[in-house]
Amino acid sequence: MIRLSVPFRQALARLVLPLLIAASFGLMLLGKADTVIAERARVALADFLVPVYDVLSRPVGAVQDAIEAVRGIADIHAENARLREENARLRRWHDVAMALEAENLALRAVLNAPAEPTPGFITTRVVADTGTSYARSVLLSTGPRHAVRKGQVALDENGLVGRVSEVGSRSARILLVTDINSRIPVQIERTGHRAILAGTNGPAPRLQHWAEGSQPQPGDRVVTSSQAGALPAGLPVGTVRQGHGGVLEVELAADMNRLTFVRLHDFGLSGILPPEQVARPEPRRRPGS
Amino acid sequence: MAVGLPRQTLLQRLDTAAHEAAPAALAVVLVIASCLPPLVPGQPGLIPSAAPAAVFFWTLYRPRLMSPLAVFGLGLLCDLLAAAPLGLNTLLLLLLHGIVLTQRRVLARQSFLLVWIAFALLATALFAVGWVLHAALAFRVLPVLPPLVELGLVIAVYPAFSWLFVRLERTLQAA
Predict the structure, then answer these.
(1) Domains, in order of start, for chain A
(2) Are A177 and A199 a contacting pair, CB within 8 Å?
């Protein structure tokens, strides 16, 4: 080790803090100027931490399930009655759906129309909630040799959750629809009018930019729109409701408080990405390459 | 001054290094753990970060165990993990470290309540600066409510973290 005189060493120690503060400003500039470096560093850290989270989040999930089970026992009676009623209702809908499907098939046969291709999907586990009060995102453990690509759409069992914004070798980050940088083209299911779903960092994103005279009404169902080829049309998003001050918000169908598994849909669309993500989505990999 | 002291063996040196790294290591573990899904399902993104409490506590009572470099590393971890603008948390934590360093001779002798109030004031100032920086880097006005809620949680949870850190400090002293 190099021997330094005591006053010199003290002076050096006093310099460290200002130097590091300057370095922080430097990092801020660097992060603004070159988003690729920041993204690479984030992806590398996520790849490193995801196996740890993968192991740690399992017992957490078990405890969550146990708490849920105890809670469930308390109102099991009411729940049972509700499910019975719902089951009866759904059985009627099932009959209707079967009849409609048969009719649809018959009509397709008459028209010789090709069936809509069923999109493939990958199911992945959410292992970490990296949300702060300024940004909302979650980390996925994808495992090695995955086929996850940037821009893919993530849904839980009920509806849209977000889009893949970063992909590592065994991890991926989803920018949630509640994030302030998230903009999703949507349409009102009833009327077909288009709008933009904008995140606010709060639990309910807002509706913006609808055409004049086509104001969405509270209670309307909101689905994704295929505008600009960013998303496939018709994925469930949520229902419109009136927020504070008359702002139109969307109550999300997805359960954002309890994301455990998400489906990543591979629609093969070259989508637009949120403004923060400057990189173009990667082209779809051809099988066998 | 190491003059006159017997030279440390490798094991002793490892032991010292482990002691000196323990506070920072605990802070890193707490920051990583705060991203785990919450035990009781609740609002996501509202698990308060342990970083401000850790930097405040160790800078106040054992500044040798929380060097500026460790603070910088901790901030960088927060930035990368939360996909925040790079350098933002590092700057905020370094500012906290610097301010506490200048006031520690007065603050370290006060009662827990006063220290807690000092932490609350510093954390509020820090969150205000953080909000301004976030807004400046994003070129837009950001909602105020989520950071306010997080600030409240960070302040409310400080006694728990403080208790944990006191435990670690006693263990370090005893060893």
Answers:
(1) 119-271 (2.40.10.340)
(2) yes
